[in-house]
Amino acid sequence: MRLDITHILTDMKNVINEHENLYELVPDGLVSDAVQYVLMYPKTLDFPLALTEDECMEQLKSLLNSIQDDQSLGDRFHEFFILACGGLDDPRMRDLLANLLVWSLDERESQLKTLREIGLLPPDNDLCLAKYIKSESSSSLPSTLSRNSNDFGQLMMRCHFDALPPYVEANELQPFNERERAIHRNFKSSYEIVQNAIYALLGMGGKYLKKNLNTGRLALHPRNKSRLKFAQKSMLLRLAEAGFFHDQVQKFSSFTTDYSSLGSMSQAFKSRLKQELSDYRGQVSQLQDILNNYRETQLQLYVDRRQNWIHRRHEPMTLLRLVTWYMKPLFRLQWLTKIASDGQLKKGGELASFLYNYINTGDPYMHDVAKDLLTGCCSPMLRMISNWMLEGNINDSYDEFFVESLPEVGADRLWHDKFRLRLDMLPKFISLDLADKILKTGKSINFLREICKVDDAVKGREHLKDIINNRVSQIFSFVADTKWHAAIETCYTQTSKHVMDIMVGPHKLLVHLQGMRSYLLLGQGDFVSIFIENIKGELDKLGTDIYNIHDLSSMLDAALRCTNAQYDDPEILNHLDVIVRSPYPGDCGWDVISLQYTLQGPLATMLEPAMPTYKTIFKPLWRMKHMEFVLSTKIWKEQMSNAKVGYVFIH
């Protein structure tokens, strides 16, 4: 579609002179071209217009009604005009369009003079003018420059530009007069300011901003700040704040600085900060793309004027749009800087607890920032939990996991003392009850593998591992009703049940507990009485005079065979024995002789720490049996003998 003003004027003159049909030209040609031309060159509004839209329409309607018998032709043209001007909201632009149509009625020399006055034709381009007049005089009809001719439009486009600005390619076009040059200079200056502002968002200086190496902040460039308006200076400095905090986050996210302690969770925290910077830079790159597209569109308008520019308009990228956009990113960068600065020397669960404090501030935006950081930071911890609960292994090179293993503790103390909670590394969002379940689950895995020699994996291990590793955000739930907590509970329940089945089944835990109750706690009364009766000779001796342990063992076997104990499980009787402790001065047999229940294998690992308690309880029970024996065998017998002697003496 031609958008040259001379074609529009020529077409209008053809309508007036009856060389073209109004109904074929006006609806999709003449007025539509004029509308697009006005939209493309709003600078022509600066030209003082002689007539208003209504005055122009009155003249056009009078002329159209006078050239034909149909008196409604002018009214129909007016309707076409209103329909085509639907996209023009500015009254000045509608006035301009109406005046352009009126100018088409003037002679060609008058048209050129008017176009030169408003800057649409070069003032001293004789070659262009000569060719234009020649093309007009080569035909007796004005339709020589009809809508089907492109030569004149191309010529006028070439005449409109004579020099190239420095930012336009050599094959592109440039405005030809001072007014258009001023517009281009203003466009270039605005482009440079906005480009410098985008650089400032990333902490980089440019033509109008310079970085202070001491403070790291951007300040106005002393040589170029005079070219800026006060509002532009203010907005540039505000945008430079985002660049400063961008540099601060970049400093704290670097792995080569000393701004953080070692640890996998600390490294994950830095990685999350890098991801935040990457997202921020991606948003800035989108702004750069918008600026580049707008610049290319503006330049293309001077290269290809015959395209429908109405549908290709782009809003310019301005400092005000950047200031409107940067508020949320600035807020996020500020909080990222504060959090990274305060947590730079923390690690493990301590770092996770520190980040968790920011979730409960009541600010939903702050909640999202802290949750994103905490989610990235806790990924290594969840892998540690998964590895511990499903494999029984602790991969903690930096002592940041809340479960620790004590290498100096042997396997015989594995169940009770080998593993324990490291409370200073326990995050706030993991309760003590949940941490205890995690500890016992991994401890059970180690117990089954190291002591019981059972390598059976937890049922649905891969599914549980996937849930524990990948549902990071659910660990921060205030209520433990998520799939992550359900997976922890499932691992704990299955592992505990497996341990119980192994101990109660093959290793007869309940049977041994009953045996310890019967013999160490003296619950088997007939056995205790027979055993004391058998060894009463040894019990009355001094502790230093008891040497023969084998005789005591044979007396124990005899007591077992003579009582109901002979019907007990042989597994229990094989663990029962009699021992003699090292005597202290004044000790008798009652003080050094005691029963012992010997445990082995997994039973020893699980129950050995409880054996001192059984021995502590055995001592007073054994003393009570001693007093019972003395009362029944000595004092009672002596009293009965004395009573019989007294009875005989009286009679």
Summing up helix and strand content along with how strands pair, one would put the structural category as mainly alpha
Strand content: under 5%
Q: How many beta strands in the DSSP annotation?
A: 6
- The value of Rg in angstroms is 50 Å
Q: Helix coverage percent of residues?
A: 55-70%
| Shape summary | rod-shaped
**How confident is the prediction overall: mean pLDDT?**
76
Detail the poorly predicted runs. Answer: 19-29, 118-177, 308-312
Number of helices in the DSSP assignment: 27
What is the topological layout?
Elements: H1 5-16, H2 22-40, H3 53-67, H4 73-84, H5 91-103, H6 108-117, H7 126-137, H8 151-159, H9 178-201, E1 209-211, E2 218-220, H10 230-252, H11 264-303, H12 319-342, H13 348-357, H14 364-377, H15 379-391, E3 403-405, H16 414-418, E4 419-421, H17 432-451, H18 461-470, H19 483-504, H20 509-519, H21 525-534, H22 536-539, H23 549-562, H24 570-573, E5 576-580, H25 589-592, E6 593-597, H26 601-607, H27 611-650
Antiparallel strand pairs: 1-2, 3-4, 5-6
Helix pairs in contact: 1-2, 2-4, 2-5, 3-4, 3-5, 9-10, 9-11, 10-11, 10-12, 11-14, 13-14, 15-17, 15-18, 17-19, 21-23
